[in-house]
Amino acid sequence: xxxxxxxxxxxxxxxxxxxxxxxxxxxxxxxxxxxxxxxxxxxxxxxxxxxxxxxxxxxxxxxxxxxxxxxxxxxxxxxxxxxxxxxxxxxxxxxxxxxxxxxxxxxxxxxxxxxxxxxxxxxxxxxxxxxxxxxxxxxxxxxxxxxxxxxxxxxxxxxxxxxxxxxxxxxxxxxxxxxxxxxxxxxxxxxxxxxxxxxxxxxxxxxxxxxxxxxxxxxxxxxxxxxxxxxxxxxxxxxxxxxxxxxxxxxxxxxxxxxxxxxxxxxxxxxxxxxxxxxxxxxxxxxxxxxxxxxxxxxxxxxxxxxxxxxxxxxxxxxxxxxxxxxxxxxxxxxxxxxxxxxxxxxxxxxxxxx
Length: 355
Known about the structure:
There is one protein chain. This protein is an alpha/beta fold and 355 residues long. It folds into 3 domains: 4-157, Tetracycline Repressor, domain 2, CATH 1.10.357.170; 159-304, Nucleotidyltransferases  domain 2 (Four Helix Bundle (Hemerythrin (Met), subunit A), Up-down Bundle), CATH 1.20.120; 305-355, no CATH class. It has helices at residues 4-22, 25-47, 62-65, 84-89, 91-103, 115-118, 126-131, 142-158, 160-177, 196-210, 223-243, 252-261, 267-294, 298-304, 335-347; strands at 56-60, 75-81, 108-113, 136-140, 315-318, 321-324, 350-351. Strands 3-2-1-4 form a 4-stranded mixed beta sheet. Strand 5 and strand 6 form a beta hairpin. Helix 1 (4-22) runs antiparallel to helix 2 (25-47), helix 2 packs antiparallel against helix 5 (91-103) and helix 10 packs parallel to helix 13 (267-294). The radius of gyration is 23 Å and the shape is flat.
């Protein structure tokens, strides 16, 4: 009898081959997710639920929860326990369950939490809170899972400012690692500005807005953003399939090979298309982030506006972005524009979208 891990390894190759032939990343992600679902649920039945599955539920979170599992992405699993005591009592089953997943070839990232722990703000582990926005039931105690789902909207509403503040800081720090620009010769299509992480930021912020209506869910993004996501997903899936690992950097060599494989033409022209899509996502992400920041508490607004004292007669500062006080002055010559560039460079401030 073929085991789950055999099925996983044997069926991954056809998915990769089909993707490389067609470039259809969305189908590849869905099929990869379904593969892993089968392995996880079988392992859970074998090691976590030898009897009735009371007090324990297995959830997919993060990209796995979104059903956007790239070929060599980590598989994020949350073991939701009714109590810490029960988790300790079943530690051997947990160990065997996780070992089965690793033996199947997955890179597993797991956490063990109670519903109460899931609905606490973790300033040092914002990723845990955010990953629950993408949670999905896989196996186990459905009533326990329902309790978590019921708690989530109230938790998000009650801790909205803290979650946004932490998410904002994570985003700003990540962008700073890439000099706050999507124009890189060899871009990181996942973590870089305008990459897949920024696309997910847009979705997360939409979900936080939806909690005002006491529900979870994501409004459909604009057609431009959907198109940009498909383009970036195709790139990342290609990088994984070609390298056989979680590689997300689009090197010069990868640009040439991909352009030839899909008969795209000049790699330089193709990269211009990449920059266009990255710009679409980056600008949308920053706009949404600043918009939702502006709606949060006055204390947070003060924190974001601390640089406003740097404003002068020519330029104002609002939410860490520099604005022209009198943009019509640009018509009289380049002097005002040159002073603007000097101003933002000296103080480390970004130009506003209007500027």
